Amino acid sequence: MLRSISLILSGLFLFTSCSLKKAKIDNDLKKYFDERNVEGCFTMMDNSNGSITVYNMAMDTTRFTPASTFKVVNSLIGLETGRILDENMIIKWDGVVRSNAEWNRDLTMKEAFKVSAVPYYQEVARRIGRDTMKNFLDSLSYGNKDISGPIDSFWLNNKLKISPDEQIGLMKRLYFDQLPFRKSVHQTVRDVMLQEDNTAYKLSYKTGWGYNETNNGIGWVVGWIEENRHVYFFATLLKSKDRNYDMTTSRLAITKDILKHYGFFEGKR
Q1: 68 assigned to active site
Q2: Does 233 reside within a domain?
Q3: Among 6, 10, 68, 204, the one annotated catalytic
Q4: Which of 9, 52, 220, 238 is deepest in the core (most CB within 10 A)?
């Protein structure tokens, strides 16, 4: 299998700032952010040889709120501890009508992950509890590991922060079953992250959208793409001063434009 073969080849390599010193800087990617009037960065690691490509290194190594990308870790911990029984576990709607209509109903974990339902995962975090959550984030070395404040919003209120390069390290370890969770838990989360699957490629990711302390919009896409039995991990981060900026559309459009720039989506990589 691709995962088993690649794991042997890659060993216990972890994505670190030391690796970034050898990264290729590709300023040609600036145009994709400029076209959509937003500041941002993009990082990719080719697992076959460990090569790293970065646009905007300063931003790539700065920590930001993870926003809904934290649902990846929240899912892992929830499943490992049994607070989430499986991807089909339903949490009942609390009856509060929210602006996102997709959240206003009973949801399974799989559904909540796909529509990025904040209320579902806030309830999961409450069920996990502070001590257990903190122990897992410490063991993962997840960003700054700060979960101060309410247990159901620390990943949304700029207490917890993580950098794009750290996100890639997490994605790599998730892909290769290298996190402190059962293999079945890794697999379940990988399954819900899979967004596109065809004969040419498989694209897996989680998005996020939040605001920093100065009210700038922060948008994320973190994940991996697989083509021809090779896997490439990536992280896209956007930052906009305009609260009305269309982060939902732009973060994914920029990510896909860059992947196309590198020749993905045709099964030739």
Answers
A1: yes
A2: no
A3: 68
A4: 220
